[in-house]
Amino acid sequence: MQTDTAFQPQDPGEAGFDAGALAAAVAFAQGHDSPFPRDILKHLEAGYFEPAPDNEVLGRTASRGDPNGLILRRGRLVASWGDTRQADMTFSVAKSYLAMLAGIALGDGLIDSLESRISDSVAHEAFHSDQNRPITWRMILEQTSEWEGTLFGKADRIDRGRDLKREGAGPKGIDRAMQTPGTYWEYNDVRVNALSLALLERFRRPLPEVFAERITSPIGSSADFTWEGYRTSFVDIDGTKIQSVSGGGHWGGGVITHAEDQARIGQLMLQDGVWGGRRLLPEGWVKASTTACALNKDYGLLWWLNGNGRYPSASRESFLAQGAGGNYIWIDPAHDLVATFRWLDPAAMPEMLRLVTASLKG
User: Fold this and answer.
1) Cβ atoms within 10 Å, residue 298
2) Prior bond to 171 cis, omega within 30?
3) Taking the complete model, does pTM exceed 0.90, yes or no?
């Protein structure tokens, strides 16, 4: 396995780990492969997220590889397993990347305030119905927007009633009454795609281009990082057709990258948005992103939190980007630790975090 040169290896003992216990944690990860099959396209077309016709795949997919991952402490590599340069789909990890772009837009003055209505600065019709006009940037970042409509061929109804604890095993797409924006929390991919569209309307440039310029290039990410949308998600921006990217791989598209690039993102968040002495994210944005939503204490601004002990053995300061199939970036400020897990069985995640945390010596 070829390690990332930005993260110099360090002996686990010198980094404050019990080497044997850390090795056991790595072996645990290697032994708990994701239940997702290798053929992701076939899995989606078989109706994992929802039945036909709502499951139509509109963007690129990629077959997945084997479980892999790495663990950093104080920016040094203390453990890795599998092929950490295996570029795979990340699913909803991309949502957290959209939050980072929202922070940049706020810092650049493209967003006046998180309390501003999106419709005040975005002319697209998606934000000008009676239901959608009051939605603020904070609401859409916290998944409390109750945005209603059809975007790029996908209706928000598809994800109404979605329960992540029963993902792939329970009904959703219920025809419930819409609530006032800001009063109801629901995990909904179409609404996140609406955020992506709103950010594109503000930046007036492809979001992957902005993300590369402002985030991935400064932190030294590889050329393996790609971010796409759907064949239906091209919009006109100043006379040019630009693809609006998706916030996951639910219907294809989204981010394809590897564990090492994801670890860089995690390290940037751990360092409060500063890399090599240069501030990449606005001051205070990491704190804002990891402040619990009033309607869901496990969620911030498109980042998952642990303040309520969602993962009982991990520090309460921990926060995560996570995607379907067992794709995680775990940031633990209490222990100066970042880890990426690719294709780890989600059912094994609590134990994985317990094993890593327990392997720390005092």
Assistant:
1) 15
2) no
3) yes
Helix (H, G, I), strand (E, B) or coil at 116: coil
- The pLDDT tens digits of the residues spanning 63-90 come to 999 999 999 999 999 999 999 999 999 9
| CA separation for the pair 256, 239 (Å, rounded) | 28
The residue among 340, 221, 329, 203 whose CA lies nearest residue 275 is 221
Comparing C-alpha atoms, which of 202, 165, 232, 192 is closest to residue 93? 192
Which residue type is seen at 292? A
**In this predicted model, what pLDDT tens digit does every residue of 142-161 receive, in sequence order?**
999 999 999 999 999 999 98
10 Å CB burial of residue 220 (0-12, 13-18, 19+) is middle
| Confidence band for 6, pLDDT divided at 50, 70 and 90 | low
Residue 71 bridge partners (DSSP) = 79, 339
The C-alpha angle 150, 156, 160, rounded to 5 degrees, equals 160
Burial bucket for residue 312 (CB in 10 Å: 0-12, 13-18, 19+): exposed
